[in-house]
Amino acid sequence: MAYNRVLQWSVMTRTWWLYDAENQCAFRSAKKIVNYLQGKHKPIYHPLSDIGDHVVVINTKLVAMRDDRWRKFTYPHHTGYAGGFSRASAWRLHDMDPTKVMHKAVYQRIKGNLLRPNIMRRLHLFPDDNVPDEIMANISDQIQQIQIVPKRLEDYSQLEKENFPQIFEWPEKEMMPKKKQPEVLQTEET
Amino acid sequence: MVFLSIFRNASTMYTRKTVGRCPKPDKYWKRSMYFRMMWKYYGRRQHIYSLGARTVHRALRYSTHSTGLKKKYMREMWTMRLGAACNQHGIEEEEFLSSLTEANIPLNRKVLTDLSIYEPRSFQSLTTFAKQRKEENGLSDALKPTFSGILTHGDKKK
Amino acid sequence: MAASCRLISHCRILSRFCNNSGISPNLTCLQGCMVRRGLNNSRKYQPLLRELYKRRIKAGPEPELHPSESGCWNYNSEVYAFGKRYGEEFDESFLRKAFITSDYRQAEEESRRQLGIDLESVPVGVVDNSELARKGEQIASRYIKAYLRHSYPMMLEEGIQAVHDYLMDDQMIYYIASNFGLTDLIMSPNYPPEDHMYCTAFKAVIGALAESQNEERAGLFVRDFVVSQLAGKNLMEIWDVKNPMGLLSSALSMQGRGPPEPRLLWQSASATMLSLYHVGIYSDKQLIGRSPGETLPIAEEIAAKDALSKLMNISLTTKPLQFGEKSENWKYDYNKRNQSVSDLLQTSSSI
């Protein structure tokens, strides 16, 4: 390749990455995303050289947490005044702002120094997959998800459910009784 | 005692104790040595010897201590860079290093990092060699995770 | 305490000043001294040095002197050693002539004229190096072109000319000559000699070698000291190609290949200031050159240059230039010319 100038340009420009947070653990995703934001995925990394990339995270509304952490994990906050302490559980914070859990997970992963605000500015969070075109135009690559997205029961077709291999049949008394259809509605309609 | 020549032994004859009224030595040279190290300090430490000298002593202690730390930090940085370089080619750093060692290719982290930055093609050939060797050993298939889904350009790892 | 502090800081200011001015260190020991201990450390010593330092500042910097001023100088042996240093057998009369500048000759004539000596009846008998330099320049120029044509047979004649001009440029010749041990040998009215005197003297040394031995030997001298400056250089950066895409298409059509087709390989951050485009150039569905760039036209132009350099076999990945024993017995055809751009355009248009 000719011309060292453009080679250097291609080394030093910031690449834009896409990360789909659907059904991904917020904390472990943050661990991976932070490497890209700081430039630790490049062999020329140095803590003082500003070579981090941009990461666009979509579907933050659908992030996952292990066990019952949505209930147990809390985010503390203090206003600075006496009696100003409060804490919000993860599900409540997520309810207020669906990008906040991901934002905090990434923020807490980065070392608290003067570089942190600038690094955080390179993180673009979107609750769903509606990303503005001017941001989508920059993206050139995708970060691999850390977990396999499980297929839900409702995603399987009726045929697949029927063809699913059954080893034995449950006895009658072990099975849940089927819900009775409310008859009142039917009568009203008729 | 008969001395045929003048007996010159500075340690016994010309020390301050024996000479008595000899003036004290000039402190200028010692002080100027400290002043040369004090130029960077702020305020009175820069210009006043007794204050600046303390800071200089502490600074020298720190610098001696950090000669050891520097080695540690450099190794950490090489490890990080090499990990990143290996990830780009889809191989773990540990596997890469161990297969190079087994094949008697004595390259350390520092050299491999320099190769990955300045000679990416040479580094790529080394990773290709390591991957091929790993496959020939046959253990990788057993440990390989099963992955189903759409593989894109970025999905090189595993 | 305050007084001594002032004294010391004053001295430090002086020593800083001394660092900046190019004063010879023999009198300014103030900054270079180690800590002195014991009885040697007299209180009278430092004021003495300070006084000497002040006098040094007042006197100003010493002029740069020719080594002969210090008394230990033998011009004959220095001239002899010059040739031996580079492993060449010089005829000493030619080599001496190579160091005499025209300014020196004129100064000699002027001094004689002032003494009232008639120059026509009693000639100066000094021949300057301009004739030798002209000859040396011709030999160097001829050899460089022949060497480049031999090394890069696929390269276009314009490129050969551009690289030749780069090597024969005054700046490059001065760079080589100034590191060649000529400073003390050049005969000039003033010391050190001026820049153009270095260039002339270096070219004259080449001419003197050709006179002493032969032109072939002078050519090898040029190869070793001038052409070797190309080692590790990117020739496409030296040669500024105008309209590389047009040149590439005509070069491809002459080889009977398909027209060049630029394609975007990948892009990043295209809506920002740090946009990056990777452009590849294909011909007959084969990648013949690629390059990154901050905009599409720049990336395309440089990719075309990359493809051209590969076509002409001058890219950085090709075999390096051959020096030393490997190119000792090369036979050059001095009349041979490489294909030029105009030839290429004519043939491609006729096809």
Give a structural overview.
The complex is a heterotrimer of chains A (about 190), B (about 160) and C (about 350). Chain A has about 190 residues and is of the alpha/beta class. Helix content of chain A is about 35%, strand content about 15%. In chain A, strands 5-2-1-6 form a four-stranded parallel β-sheet, covered by helices on one side. In chain A, strands 3-4 form a two-stranded antiparallel sheet. Helices cover about 65% and strands about 0% of the residues of chain B. By secondary structure, chain B is mainly alpha-helical. The longest helix of chain B is centred in the middle third of the chain and has 40 residues, at about 50-90. Chain C is mainly alpha-helical and about 350 residues long. Chain C folds into three domains: about 20-60, no CATH class; about 75-230, Ribonuclease iii, N-terminal Endonuclease Domain, Chain A, CATH 1.10.1520.10; about 240-315, Double Stranded RNA Binding Domain (2-Layer Sandwich). Chain C has 15 helices and three strands. Chain C has a three-stranded antiparallel β-sheet, with helices on one face. Chain C starts with a helix and ends with a helix. Chains in contact: A-B, A-C, B-C. Chains A and C meet through helix 1 of A and strand 1, strand 3 and helix 14 of C. Chain C: It is found in: Mitochondrion. Chain C: This is Large ribosomal subunit protein mL44. Chain C: GO terms for molecular function: double-stranded RNA binding; ribonuclease III activity. Chain C: Belongs to the ribonuclease III family. Mitochondrion-specific ribosomal protein mL44 subfamily.
Features:
heterotrimer; A: 190 residues; alpha/beta; Ribosomal Protein L13p, Chain: A; 4-stranded parallel β-sheet; two-stranded antiparallel sheet; 9 helices; extended; C: 351 residues; mainly alpha; Ribonuclease iii, N-terminal Endonuclease Domain, Chain A; Double Stranded RNA Binding Domain; 3 domains; 3-stranded antiparallel β-sheet; 15 helices; 3 strands; 52% helix; 7% strand; disordered N terminus
